[in-house]
Design brief:
Number of strands: 7
Order of helices and strands: EHEHEEHHHHHEHEHE
Number of helices: 9
Structural class: alpha/beta
Bound molecules: adenosine monophosphate, manganese (II) ion
Strand order of the largest sheet: 1-2-3-4-5-6-7
Shape: globular
Distance between the termini: 17 Å
Amino acid sequence: MSTVIYDLHTHSTASDGTLHPAVLVQWAADQGVDVLALTDHDCTAGLAEASAAAANLALRLIHGVEISVTWNQGTIHILGLKIDQGNLALQLGLQMLQAYRNERAIEIACQLQKIGIEDAFEGALCYAQGNILSRTHFARFLVEKGYAKDIQSVFKHYLVPSKPGYVASRWATLEQTLAWIHNAGGISVIAHPARYKLTRKRLIQLFGEFKECGGIALEVISGHQQPEETAQLVGLAKELDLFGSCGSDYHGSQNDRANLGQISSFPVDCKPVWNLWQ
Ligand code: AMP
Ligand code: MN
Ligand code: MN
Ligand code: MN
């Protein structure tokens, strides 16, 4: 029996990925992914096209979303897997975040204008092509205009704390987000917990609050993660009786941390989140 390949965290052009949903799904199938979740930032607009594409392939598509949350003055991301995208409260919540993204984009552009970078709002809009606006779209514009050599370098010199174009974002609360996901029948997962640069104490506080709000799983495997980080997350998942999930956080070829489906094998001492739907 060959192992089933799960990639439960990916992005399409509906948010800040570079591949259209159908292309992403086809590419995942070509890479041998068996179960793929499309988890665009704060929107579910890519799911219909992805579902249609998956219907013709030997690939199971999981309907997902990655919701932006403000917690302890920082941003964290919560994935909702197996959500009912038709759920009204969830969609109203996502609409609020999408509207906030537009407001924030204007603030980002104003800041960039102050240091002499003109028309960043229009530039980012052009990359977003009517989809939700993200910092990645600003990053692509800044690379195009020669302000940075690549996307990684943009996120070193712009759009992050204490650099031009940084806005302290006001996203949803953890409690609100988990209520949206759970009411829509979804499974909540803390995305890439190692990437928030939280101390162990703060990480445990976050996981505790998540658990108190009914949170289900930690993404114990994420693209570009150190083995020590994985071991720490697996340990904490066990301690707090949380399930584990895995995903590449693939965005298309430009700003990747890992290729689609190329994630390390799932730890044996962790309860996989897919046990909940098998
Ligand atoms: P936003 O949700 O609009 O604030 O944008 C966050 C997105 O920016 C993340 O989902 C990543 O896709 C991208 N991003 C943030 N930091 C980096 C980084 N260091 N390298 C590449 N992409 C990044
Ligand atoms: Mn992203
Ligand atoms: Mn994320
Ligand atoms: Mn992501």
